[in-house]
Amino acid sequence: MSRETVTVVGAGTMGHGIAQVAAMSGHPTRIYDVSEEVLKRADEAIRRNLDKGVEREKVTAAQRESTLENLRFESYLEPAVTGSDIVIEAAPESLDLKKNLFGEIETYVSASAILATNTSSLPIGRIGEDLNHPERVLGLHFFNPVHIMALLEIVRATATSEDVLSRAKAFGAGLGKECIVVRDVPGFATSRLGLVIGLEAMRMVEQKVASAEDIDKAMTLGYRHPVGPLKLTDMVGLDVRLAIAEHLHTALGSEAFRPPEILRTMVEEGLLGKKAGRGFYDWTV
Hints:
2 domains; eight-stranded mixed β-sheet; 12 helices; oxidoreductase activity, acting on the CH-OH group of donors, NAD or NADP as acceptor; oxidoreductase
């Protein structure tokens, strides 16, 4: 596999997960975030994941060391992306933020560099519409935890070139992912299906149909989902799911995506899930 240089923009949960699998696959990988504290937490999280892998004999000691050697942490954008072959943006779900980021990134990278976004719902075409080379923009939607989940959803915008799509598929396969290709439509395939189940599960909690634990158990044992929809919501972040639900409710005009009141209330109260310690579950115990 080609050792393309990869830069991940954003060192949060998804960002450091993407950086870890890229580095584990032999790519020289840079991970950028404006916050030194976020970069420090990302480094610690990657090391914990690798240590657990070694402990469970899923990762060798040599693989752990080579992964860490492939990683470079940057708090300035220009040195982080200059010379990169693939830039994967994993910033918060804000269209303006992503457009501005890509506009700045384009000034530092070569014309052949792929610009990918990990967005789970925002339109890829809109993100790249103001760039000089929108044909090199596409979605690479990874799933949490990135080092475990096998799927990579590749989202092709109208402007995305065949060459960029082909390179993205080869990159995903090299990471050991099963790739699916979907059109640039609201919610793509996975967010549209996954979110509607999650929102209905929230309504069931709201209506006291069953506890969050039992609703999740119904899906993990009854439908063989690896994680229940409410625990998954906690892992993704309730604020993230609210933003996606609001976007899809507007874009698709479907009541299935109207955010339930329990979701709005919990976000207002700071119960954002795992990252905040509390959500539908208590993550402090």
